[in-house]
Recover the amino acids of this structure.
C-alpha cells in the first residue's frame, strides 16, 4: 500500500474512512507497529491494508470501525491474537495488539499532516506524527531539528528523540497520556547500474518493494522509462551519473552491468563513500580481475572487501528475475542488519 | 592484450591525459556506442587559431579511452580544419597498436565526438 497516495485519494474522495493503526503489541504479532488499515466508515465494505494478517483481529477492527462516526472520532481497542480453538491447536501468535482508530472526514488534520510528511520525505527529512492515543490532544508533526534545544529535558522530547534514534515507531506514556509516535522515513534508495535483463527485473522488484530506484546506463536505447517503469532512469557516463547520486548508509548499489570498463571506475568512486550496500554481478574469475584492477588504481583491500560478490543470496537463482530476487533479498538483509549466509566471499 | 603495440594504449588507458571537467568550455559534445556502451564527452576551448585546450570524460574500453586521451594532446593548438580531417587510421598510427577491424569503432567514437565539438566551434565562428 502506498500510504500517502491512499490518504490523498481518501481526502479527494470526500468519503468518511476509519484509519486503523497498530500502535502497540505485547508478545508477538505478525506486523510491526505503525501498520495501517483503512476501512470505509458505515458499512466497512471497502478495506485497504490490514493490521495483522487478515484474521480475527482485523475482523474486530472492521467491526469497531463500522460503529464510528463524526461524534466518535478517535478510539483505541485492544485485541488478543488468539481464540480458544486456535489455542488448542497451538495455532496462535500469542500477542495482544492495541489499535488506534481515527475517523477521517474532509477537513481532518491528518490529511494535511500526511501531505506534509510526504513532502518532507521527498526532501529526505524523517518526520514524526505524534498522536494522543487515549486523549484529545491535537496531533503534532515533528522533524529531528524541532527537538533540538530542549534545555529543560522534557520527558516527551526525550522519548521522541529515542524514536528518531531507534528508527522505528513507538508508543509510550508521558504525563498520564499514551502517545503514539509514528515515524516516517524516506524510501530507501536502490541504484541499479546496467539496463540489461537483470537490471529490468531488479528495478521492477525494487519499485514494487517501495524503493526509490535509480537506473544508470550509457545507452539510451536500453535505459528507457518504458523498460523501467517507476524508476528514475539516468542515461550518461555511468561513473559520472553514479557520482551524482547522493549515496548514504541507506543506499544500496547493485552493479549488474557485467563489464569492467564501467565497474572499475564506478567502484573506484563508490568505495570511498559510506554507501550501505555495494554488490557486483559476475563470476569468481572475472570479479577477481576487477579486484586486481582496483588494487592497481590504489583502492585499498579493505574497501574492496565491502563489495558483495557473488551478488545476491545463494538461492539457486538461474533466470534474470530469480537473480534479481536474490539481489533484492540480500539488499533487504543488509538493510535489516542481518548476517549474510555462509559461502559469501569478499571481493 | 599486453603485446608489443599495446603499450601506448595501456599507458593512456591507465593514465589518461586531460581527463576531467573544463570550467567554461566553448564547445561540448557527447556520444555513445549503443552496442558496447562506450560513452565519451569532449570539451573544447577556443583559441584564435583553432582549438585551445581539450578535455574529455567517459567510460569505455581501453582503446576508446586511450584514443580520447591521445586526441586531447593531438588537437591542442590545432586548427579546426585539421581537426576535421583526423581519421581513424591517423589515430591508430599514433597509438602504435594493431587495432582489428572489429574494434575500429572504438577509435571512431572519440574522433566523432571530438569532431562534433570542433564543428560547434566552427558554428560559433560563423555565428559571429
Amino acid at each position: 500500500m502506498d500510504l500517502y497516495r491512499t490518504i490523498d485519494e481518501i481526502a479527494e474522495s470526500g468519503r468518511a474512512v476509519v484509519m486503523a493503526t497498530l500502535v502497540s503489541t505485547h508478545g508477538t504479532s505478525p506486523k510491526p507497529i505503525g501498520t495501517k488499515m483503512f476501512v470505509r466508515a458505515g458499512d466497512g465494505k471497502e478495506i485497504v491494508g490490514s493490521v495483522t494478517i487478515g484474521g480475527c483481529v482485523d475482523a474486530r477492527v472492521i467491526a469497531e470501525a463500522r460503529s464510528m462516526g463524526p461524534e466518535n472520532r478517535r478510539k483505541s481497542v485492544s485485541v488478543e491474537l488468539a481464540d480458544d480453538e486456535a489455542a488448542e491447536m497451538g495455532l496462535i501468535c500469542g500477542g495482544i495488539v492495541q489499535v488506534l482508530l481515527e475517523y477521517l472526514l474532509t477537513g481532518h488534520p491528518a490529511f494535511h499532516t500526511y501531505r506534509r510528511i510526504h513532502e518532507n520525505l521527498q526532501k529526505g527529512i524523517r518526520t514524526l506524527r505524534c498522536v494522543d492515543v487515549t486523549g484529545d490532544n491535537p496531533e503534532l508533526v515533528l522533524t529531528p531539528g524541532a527537538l533540538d534545544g530542549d534545555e529543560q529535558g522534557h520527558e516527551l522530547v526525550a522519548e521522541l528523540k529515542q524514536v528518531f534514534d531507534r528508527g522505528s515507531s513507538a508508543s509510550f506514556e508521558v504525563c498520564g497520556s499514551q502517545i503514539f509516535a509514528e515515524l516516517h522515513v524516506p524510501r530507501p534508495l536502490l541504484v541499479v547500474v546496467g539496463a540489461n535483463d537483470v537490471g529490468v527485473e531488479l528495478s521492477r522488484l525494487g519499485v514494487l518493494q517501495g524503493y526509490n530506484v535509480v537506473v544508470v546506463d550509457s545507452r539510451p536505447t536500453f535505459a528507457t522509462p518504458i523498460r523501467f517503469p517507476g524508476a528514475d532512469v539516468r542515461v550518461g557516463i555511468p561513473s559520472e551519473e553514479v557520482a551524482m547520486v547522493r549515496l548514504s548508509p541507506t543506499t544500496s548499489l547493485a552493479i549488474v552491468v557485467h563489464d569492467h570498463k564501467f565497474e572499475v571506475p564506478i567502484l573506484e568512486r563508490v568505495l570511498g563513500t559510506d554507501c550501505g550496500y555495494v554488490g557486483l554481478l559476475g563470476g569468481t574469475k572475472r570479479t577477481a580481475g576487477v579486484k586486481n584492477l582496483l588494487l592497481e588504481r590504489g583502492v585499498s583491500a579493505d574497501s574492496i572487501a565491502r563489495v558483495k560478490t557473488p551478488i545476491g543470496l545463494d538461492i539457486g537463482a538461474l533466470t534474470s528475475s530469480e537473480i534479481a530476487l536474490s539481489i533484492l533479498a540480500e539488499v533487504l538483509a543488509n538493510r535489516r542488519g542481518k548476517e549474510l549466509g555462509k559461502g559469501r566471499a569478499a571481493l | 592484450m599486453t603485446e608489443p603495440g599495446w603499450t601506448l594504449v595501456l599507458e593512456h588507458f591507465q593514465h589518461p591525459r586531460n581527463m576531467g571537467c573544463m570550467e567554461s568550455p566553448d564547445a561540448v559534445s557527447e556520444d555513445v556506442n549503443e552496442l558496447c556502451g562506450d560513452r565519451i564527452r569532449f570539451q573544447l576551448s577556443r583559441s584564435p587559431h583553432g582549438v585551445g585546450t581539450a578535455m574529455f570524460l567517459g567510460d569505455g574500453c581501453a582503446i576508446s579511452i586511450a584514443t580520447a586521451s591521445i586526441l586531447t594532446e593531438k588537437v591542442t593548438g590545432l586548427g579546426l580544419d585539421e581537426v576535421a580531417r583526423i581519421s581513424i587510421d591517423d589515430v591508430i598510427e599514433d597509438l602504435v597498436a594493431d587495432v582489428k577491424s572489429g574494434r575500429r569503432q572504438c577509435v571512431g567514437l572519440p574522433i566523432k565526438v571530438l569532431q562534433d565539438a570542433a564543428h560547434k566551434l566552427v558554428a560559433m565562428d560563423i555565428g559571429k
About this structure: The first strand of chain B starts at residue 27 and ends at 32. The longest helix of chain B spans residues 104-127. Helices of chain B lie at 7-14, 62-75, 80-84, 88-95, 104-127.
